[in-house]
């Protein structure tokens, strides 16, 4: 997957986080020892989602319920795949990489775009919260 101009939202924190997510996806796709990278990716994603969710709560983002629901589904699938991979079912890794690649592009350009636009329109200060 390539982090390209379509995915740039103009929010440096989210843009950097999405670029890191793409890098992790690519590392996972090419890895032979996938569990450490999968664990790193799950931790990164959980921190990413927690950051966005803290922003949504702070600014009273109207679409927070839908956005958080999608986060919960994605992190749940990642954790389920991790459990399967730990049990020896490594074929799920490539399916996860493929699905997350498509999901991230859509999520970033729709849901995260809406969040960053709302932050901008509202003039909200979210710089106080940095990635963990």
Cα distance, first to last residue? 24 Å
Averaged pLDDT, please? 92
Helix/strand-derived category reads mainly alpha
> Helix count, per DSSP?
4
Can you summarize the main beta sheet? none
Strand content: under 5%
Low-confidence stretches: none
Given the C-alpha coordinates, what overall shape results? elongated
Write the element-wise H/E pattern from the N-terminal end onward.
HHHH
Helix content: over 70%
- How many runs of DSSP E, i.e. beta strands? 0
**Global Rg:** 15 Å
Structural write-up:
This protein is mostly helical and 132 residues long. 76% of the residues lie in helices and 0% in strands. It has four helices and no strands. It has helices spanning 12-30, 34-59, 64-86, 91-122. Helix 2 (34-59) runs antiparallel to helix 3 (64-86). It is elongated.
């Amino acid at each position: 997957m390539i982090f390209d101009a379509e995915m740039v939202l103009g929010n440096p924190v989210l843009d950097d986080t999405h670029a890191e997510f793409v890098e992790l996806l690519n590392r996972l796709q090419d890895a032979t020892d996938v569990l450490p990278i999968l664990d790193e990716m799950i931790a990164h994603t959980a921190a990413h989602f927690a950051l966005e969710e803290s922003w949504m709560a702070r600014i009273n983002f109207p679409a927070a319920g839908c956005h958080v629901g999608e986060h919960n589904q994605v992190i749940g699938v990642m954790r389920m795949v991790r459990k399967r991979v730990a049990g020896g079912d490594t074929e799920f890794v490539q399916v996860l990489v493929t699905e997350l690649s498509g999901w991230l592009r859509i999520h970033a350009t729709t849901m995260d775009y809406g969040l960053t636009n709302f932050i901008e329109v509202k003039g909200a200060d979210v710089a106080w919260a940095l990635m963990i």
